[in-house]
Amino acid sequence: MGSDRKPIGILRFLGTNCDRDIWKAVQSVGLEPQWLWYQDRFDPEDYSGFVVPGGFSYGDYVRSGALASLAPVLGCLKEANEKGMPILGICNGFQILCESGLLPGALLKNESTRFIDKWVKLKRVNASPYFSSNEEINIPIAHGEGRFYCGESTLKELQDREQIWLRYSDNPNGSVDDIAGILNANKNVAGLMPHPERAMKKWMGTSDGYSFFASLADGGLQ
Amino acid sequence: MSLEQRLKVYRLTEAEYKKICLLLGREPKGVEWAIFSALWSEHCSYKSSKVHLKKFYNKNDRVLESFGENAGVIDLGEGERVAFKMESHNHPSFISPHQGAATGVGGILRDIFTMGARPIALANYLCFGEPKVEVMPHLVDGVVRGIADYGNCVGVPMVTGHTEFNASYNGNILVNAFALGYFGPEDRVFTSGARGIGNYVVYVGAKTGRDGVHGASMASESFDEKNEGKKPTVQIGDPFMEKLLIESCLEVMKEDLVESIQDMGAAGITSSSFEMAAKGKVGLNIDLQKVPMRQSGLTPEEILLSESQERMLLMCTPEKFARLKEIFNRWDLDAEVIGEVIEGSQIKIHWGAELLTELNPVDVVDHAPEYKRQYSEYKSVNKREKIAPSKFDKFTFRAAENINLCSRDWIFNQYDQRVGASTAADCSQSVGVVELPHSGRPLGIALGCRPPMMRTDIQLGAYDAIAYPSLQLSSKGLQPLAVTDCLNFGNPEKPELMTEFVASVEALSKACEAFDTPVISGNVSLYNETLDKNVTSTPATGVVGLGHSMEKVPKDEFCVEGERAFLLRCELWSGNFYSADAYNFPVEFTGDWDKEKVTQFAKDLQEYVNEFGPSTSNVVGKMGALFELMTMSQSGFSVHLDKPLADSMCAERLYEVIVTAKSGDEFKSFWQKRNVEYFDLGKVMAEPLKVDGNLVDAHWTSEPFHKQLGLE
Lengths: 222, 712
What we know:
The structure holds two protein chains of two kinds.
Chain A: E1 8-12, H1 19-28, E2 33-37, E3 49-52, H2 72-82, E4 87-90, H3 92-99, E5 106-108, E6 116-124, E7 136-143, E8 147-149, H4 152-160, E9 164-168, E10 179-183, E11 189-192, H5 210-217
Parallel strand pairs in A: 1-2, 1-3, 3-4, 4-11
Antiparallel strand pairs in A: 5-8, 6-7, 6-9, 9-10, 10-11
Chain B: H1 3-9, H2 14-24, H3 31-39, H4 42-45, H5 50-53, E1 63-65, E2 72-77, E3 80-88, H6 90-95, H7 97-113, E4 118-128, H8 136-154, E5 158-165, E6 174-183, E7 200-205, H9 215-218, H10 239-254, E8 260-263, H11 268-280, E9 283-287, H12 300-305, E10 311-316, H13 321-330, E11 334-342, E12 347-351, E13 354-359, H14 361-365, H15 409-412, E14 423-425, E15 432-435, E16 442-448, H16 451-456, H17 458-475, E17 479-488, H18 495-515, E18 519-525, E19 529-530, E20 533-534, E21 538-546, E22 564-575, H19 578-583, E23 589-591, H20 595-612, E24 617-619, H21 625-632, E25 638-641, E26 652-661, H22 664-672, E27 677-685, E28 690-691, E29 694-695, H23 704-709
C-alpha cells in the first residue's frame, strides 16, 4: 500500500456534500486525505493526486459546477493537470471539471427532469491509467443534472482518442452515446457521474467502487 | 381597530385576551399583540394537547434529553448518541407543496444540528388524497420535488418513507419529516437555555425577510375556500444556505464557542428568544434594528414574526465572538450581535433607541393557556367477538386501480439515499439502516401508523403505530430503542376528535412502555380539517433501533437460492384493513392487544436473526401474507411453494413475518420452544412465483403508481 505516498488533495467548495465520503474512501485504501478549501492556493508537488467530490457546490445555482469552476483552488488544479497528475471528478466534481475546461462536454438536466438515485451497471470502454476499475461495474448514481452532452465533432474525438471511460448499460438520463465517464486526452483527468465512494463494502450494495481509489494508492497502473 | 377586529387578526380568543391583561396588569400594546399571538398559537404552545402529552412514557436509562429541547437524545453506548425528531409541515405543503415540503425538511434538520448532532438520516411520512382529485397530482409532484430539492442539496440521505392515499386527505394532506443526527464520543450535546449575564445574543444565518409572517398562527387554523390568500405565510427555503449553516454551526460548537443555541423556527426570533430566556431564567436586551435584513422597510412586528428560514439564535461570551464571527464569515454567513443576556427576568425589545416592550418570558411561554378540551372514553365500534377475515381472490389484486398497493419507487428514486456513504438499507426496504461512524454498528429507522388501521379502530391503530415498526426493526435483528411522533389530528374543539386524540396518546404510550421505547420528541398538528371534514386521525411515528453487525442485516426480498422460507405468526388481531379499502369489505376486526406476546415475539425475532443470519426477513404488511410474498418475489427469487396456498395467506393478520433459514432444522428447533406458530413454505429458488401451479406476475406493483397520478 502507498502509506509513504504524498497525500491526496480533496477539494471543498461551499455546498460540497460528498467531501467527507471521499475522505473515508481515500483513508480506506491507506492514503492520507487532505482538504483543499476553495480559496486555497497550493503547490501540486505536495500531493500525489486530487479528487473533486460531488454534491451541490454553491447549491447548483447558475448551473451545476459553474461557480466552483471560478474558485482560486481551480487555478492550482490546472497547474497539477499540466504536470500530468491524476485528477478524479465525481458527480458534481465531474461537472466542475467540464465547466473549468479540464474535461470536454457538459452535463445537462436529466431527460426526465427529475433527480435520479439508483444502482446502474457500467461497462468500462477504455482504461484509465490511474483510476482502475473492473470491466463490469455496479455502483449508484444520484444526480439531477447528469446527462452528458457534447457536439458531434467532440464526440468523434472522444471516440477516436479512446477517451470514453465508462458507459451505462441502460442509459438512465439521456447521456450522449450512453456516456457515464470520460478521460482527458492525456488520460490523467477522469470524470464520472456515478459514485464509487458509495460502493466500497458489500453491505453498501457492492464493493465495485473500491478499485477506483485503491489504484491511486498503487500509484496508478501505468 | 376595534378589539374584536384585533382579536381576529391576531387569532386570540376573548378569554385569552383577558388572561394577557391579567398577566401584564394592563392592556397589551404594539408588538405585544404579535408576540402573544405567535407564542400562544396552538402550533407553539400545544395548548390543546399539552395536558395529554404529559402522559407519554418518556424516560428510561438511555434517554439523555426528551421534550423541552429541540430534539430528544438517546445514549447508544460506546460513546455514541443520536438526536431525532419528527415534525409536520401539513398546512404550508397544502398551500404551496414544493416550498412547504422543502422547508419542512429544513426545519427538522435545524432541530437536530442545533443540538450539536450531525444529521445523518432523513425519513418522511406522507398522506395524500385520492389520485382522481384534481389538485392531487400537483401536490404529490410538488411535495416530492420539494423534499428532494432540499434533502439532496444539503446532503443528508433519505433512508425510509411511508406514503398513503385516502379520501380523508383530499382537502388536507400530511407532510411529516423525520431527521436523525449523530454525536461521536468527542461531541457535546448543546441545549437552548440562555445563560451567562453579559453574554452576547448572536443572530446567525440567512437575512430576515417578510416570508412566513404569521405562519405559526396560520398552521393553527382550519382551511376554508380562501387558502390561496395564505400563500405569503409560507416560508421560502434555501438548502444551500442550510448546508453552510450546518457546517458552520458544527464547527463553532466543536471549537466550544457557543453557550446555548436554538433555531428560529415557527414564530422566528420571537419564539427562540422568549423560549431561550424562559428556559434559562434570565433576561435579554434585544435591538431589532441590528437584525440582518434582506429588504428595507420591515416593521418591528414583521421582524418578530418572520419565519425566514436558515437562521439560528445563539449566545456566546464576548471574548469568543471574534473567532465565532470569523468562522461564520468563512462559510459566507452573517453573524451579528443583536443583544445581550441581562439580569432579571425581562425581555426588553428595542427598535434603536426606542423601547418597544418589556415582557417577562415566563408569562408568555410558561403561562400560555392550557386547555382541557372535552372528550369521552373511546369505544370500539368495529370490534367483533369473532370474525372470519374476508378472504380475497388471490388473482384479482386491484393494484392497477388501488394506488395503496403500488410500489413507491417512483417517489424514492428522486431522493439521494446514499450520500454519507453509510446507507446499508435504502427506501426500497421496510427499515432504513445506516452505519454508525464510530462503532460501525447498524442503526435502523422504521416509520409507523397505518391509516387503514386507524380507521378501523383508534386503539388498535395506535398500538400498531408502535408495534409494527418495532417488529420491522426486530425482523432486521435491531432492538427498538426510542420513538418520536407526529400527531396529526383534526379540530380539537370537537369532542369526538379529542376523544380519538386522547385514546391514541394513551394507546401509543402503553405500547411504548411495553417495548420500553420511550417517546423522546415529537410534534402535534391539529386543525387538519377543511370545510369541516377531518383527516383520518394519524399519529405517525418514527422508531429507532440498534443492531450489532452491518453484514447481518437481512433483506426484505428473497435473494439467496436454497434457503428455506417460513411464515411466523404471532396473532393479536385479524380483520379487514387495507383490504377494506381495496375491496369494500366490511370494516371489522377481532382480537386484543397482548403486550407480553408481542414484545416476546420481537425479542425472539432479534435473537433468531442475530444468531442464524437469515438472508431474508420481513414483516407482512398490507393485504396479508400472499401479497407480501409477491412483493418479496420481485427480485428474481421466490419461494417454490410446497403445498396449495392456505386461505389464511389471503387475509390480514397482525402480526406475521416471512423469514428464511439456512437450515430448516435449526429454524424449527429455535421456534418450537417459543409461543409462535410457524408454517414451512418451501425453498427459495431463482424462479418467478407460482401459486397453486399458476405463474404470478408481481411486476404490476411498481408500474401503475405514477400513471394513476398522470405524472411522468
